[in-house]
């Protein structure tokens, strides 16, 4: 059994090695713009499977830069857990964020009422973050309200 798991894992890791240079975020975004998309969702679709893989918040600035000058809207999906995460994504240029896991936690906790509770908490946290940042309009959150460190690895 252990050998079968090892062989499957070895194959999977070999496959990952062959596509390791696949991350071409800006060129993919530029290609999408050239082909007339209305919007791009920056997502890791359900979570990163390997540690050290670029998070959505880290990929966002590159996508924003790649679509600059076009009418393409950029949205963020993945990793949003708090209202401050919403503020950060908007400050980096996202038009809006999608929230998945916290909503599911609320649903598991107390059904529809739990979902409403989670969304209310996120809304309150976002409003507080806006106020503490001196922002009054969600569409005009300046990048200066956050300190973004590209290529910064967490010590966790």
TrEMBL record:
It catalyses: 2-hydroxyoctanoate + O2 = 2-oxooctanoate + H2O2; a (2S)-2-hydroxycarboxylate + O2 = a 2-oxocarboxylate + H2O2. GO terms for molecular function: (S)-2-hydroxy-acid oxidase activity. Residues 1-151 form the FMN hydroxy acid dehydrogenase domain. Coiled coil: none annotated. Keywords: Flavoprotein, FMN, Oxidoreductase. It holds the Pfam family FMN_dh. One of its GO terms (cellular component) is peroxisome. Gene3D superfamilies: Aldolase class I. It comes from the Eukaryota. Its cofactor is FMN. PANTHER family: 2-HYDROXYACID OXIDASE 1 (PTHR10578:SF107), S -2-HYDROXY-ACID OXIDASE-RELATED (PTHR10578). This is Putative hydroxyacid oxidase 1-like.
